[in-house]
Amino acid sequence: MGNVILIGFMGCGKSTVGLRLSYRLRRTLLDTDREIEKEERRTISEIFAEDGEAYFRDRETAILRKLMRSANNQIISVGGGLPMREENRALLHELGQVFYLRAEGGTIYERVKDDTTRPLLQVADPLHKIETLIKERDPYYMEAADVALTVDGKSFSQILDEIEERVNAREGNAETEG
Ligand code: S3P
After folding, report:
1. pLDDT (tens digit, 9 = 90+) per residue, 30-49?
2. Who's near 54: CB < 8 A, 6+ residues apart?
3. What is the pLDDT of residue 177?
């Protein structure tokens, strides 16, 4: 176990933060969306279109169960909807320290407005959809998280510093200060 897990809404920066964190902490990175795509040999959009969201959600839980057997000291970035399932939240807690990258609707919208790979946002009014979903999901993200970090207006290096500090504190190898 001992993994560092990144959760949060689509476009909150999980993938970029995950990649940079993996260099900084010298740990391998695993992204649940990419794992599902690899195993299924098709994209998230294809999975949603061909088998529906419920099928995809079951694949997410299956990946977490697999990680319970294999993942140690990794950075794990998870799909935005994954923490909505109670079982998934319990599994995330067992897997490691969970960081919620918390962002406002406007921040998310700016990052995802031209993206076509997220089926849930292919709607007439994506900003409204984002705001509705964030309101609905935020309590579950908070419940799943050990640490919630506001990311609006912060640089990636600021976010990484904050995560690194909390990881060090948890793992008991913090530098003398604090
Ligand atoms: C989803 C988020 C996506 C992906 C799928 C559904 C969601 O992942 O799992 O499109 O329900 O929020 P990202 O958060 O990595 O974009």
Report:
1. 999 999 999 999 999 999 99
2. none
3. 47
| Count of CB atoms situated within 10 Å of the CB of 106 | 12
- Tell which atom from ligand 1 comes closest to the C-alpha of 53: 6
**Span from the CA of 161 to the centroid of ligand 1 (angstroms):** 25
22: its two tokens? 């993996």
- Rounded to whole angstroms, the maximal C-alpha distance in the chain is 54
Query: How many Å lie between the centroid of ligand 1 and the Cα of residue 33?
Result: 7
Mutation pick for ligand 1 pocket among 118, 123, 131, 133 (CB with most ligand atoms within 8 Å): 118
pLDDT tens figures, 124-137: 999 999 999 999 99
Mean pLDDT computed over every residue of the chain: 95
DSSP calls for 53-90: HHHHHHHHHHHHHHHHHH--S-EEE--TTGGGSHHHHH
